[in-house]
Write a structure and sequence with these properties.
The protein has one domain (about 10-270). It is built from eleven helices and five strands. It has helices at about 10-20, 25-30, 50-55, 60-80, 125-130, 140-160, 160-165, 175-190, 210-225, 225-230, 245-260; strands spanning about 90-95, 95-100, 100-105, 110-115, 120. A three-stranded mixed β-sheet has the order 1-5-4, covered by helices on one side. Strands 2-3 form a two-stranded antiparallel ribbon. Strand 4 and strand 5 form a beta hairpin.
């Protein structure tokens, strides 16, 4: 898919179709890969101190999610690999941001930048997820979005991203396999989150999610399926252009991670058809 027109209306949906939840360099499509600066000052997060703050404020929920992801992946990498976990950078921004991959705006959606090993998140995206892509803007759905980006960081740490052909497209392409694996990694985190203990408080970061809450995360995964985005833009579904996978693929691999909880189970490159 190519970006058509500007970034408003259908143009924004097309940008999201390509860039949403991806390890791809957003600057390659937005500003040629050159960092132009112009990011607004970092968001004030001084009020994000407790679980109650996370329940009340979306930005605090993102801070809590990042903390929980770091604790989860540190333990998982130690248990399941020989790779030492290194925390990614994490920046919540509004408007625009300068990154190692170039400058980006909120039109890009959440993304992971391999060049500086950082996750970037504009909170306005969650409103777009609901209003333009039809997913419920529920807390666990929001956490799935962040966990997916952490999944790309795990891929980068393990060398999976570097060895993949991210320019390839189609249902069986490396690009789709990377996205589905990041969905699976997000499922791993959600499945284990209720048992992930905050080392500072000695309590778990989350209570056990309900069936409806898990359904909201699955709905978010389905909403960003390539077929759903094509349909939402009033286009014919064209599998050969896919970069993220269908709604069915995304929900299936999230469920695989959620239920099985291992990196091995999330090896989307080991199957003929992911």
């Amino acid at each position: 898919m190519a970006i058509g027109g500007g970034l408003g209306g259908g143009g924004l949906i097309l940008v999201l179709a390509i860039m949403l939840l991806t390890g791809q360099n957003p600057a390659e499509l937005l500003d040629g890969g050159t960092s132009q600066g112009g990011s607004e000052p970092g968001m004030d997060l001084s009020h994000c101190e407790t679980g109650a703050d996370a329940n009340e404020h979306t930005e605090c929920r993102m801070v809590l999610t990042a903390d929980a992801l770091d604790v989860y992946w540190e333990g998982t990498m130690a248990e399941q690999t020989r790779q030492e976990y290194v925390m990614p950078g994490f920046e919540i921004f509004t408007g625009s941001v300068a990154t190692g991959c170039g400058s980006a705006t909120s039109a890009v959606g959440p993304f992971y930048c391999p060049a500086d090993s950082s996750v970037y998140l504009d909170l306005d995206f969650f409103g777009q997820l609901e209003s333009q892509l039809g997913a419920t803007n529920a807390p666990l759905a929001q956490m799935y979005i962040v966990a997916h980006e952490w999944g790309h960081h795990t891929q980068s740490s393990l060398g999976t991203m570097a060895s993949a052909d991210r320019q390839d497209t189609g249902p069986e392409s490396d690009a789709v396999r990377l996205e589905l694996q990041a969905d699976c990694y997000a499922g791993m985190f959600v499945g284990a989150a209720a048992g992930t203990v905050d080392p500072d408080s000695g309590e778990t970061f989350l209570r056990e999610p309900t069936r409806d809450e898990v359904a909201s995360a699955l709905e978010a995964a389905a909403a960003v399926g390539d077929d759903r985005i094509h349909q939402g833009a009033g286009q014919e579904v064209s599998p050969h252009t896919w970069t993220h996978g269908s709604a069915e693929q995304r929900t299936r691999w999230f469920t695989t991670g959620y239920e099985q909880g291992t990196l091995q189970a999330c090896d989307t490159f080991a199957v003929a058809t992911p």
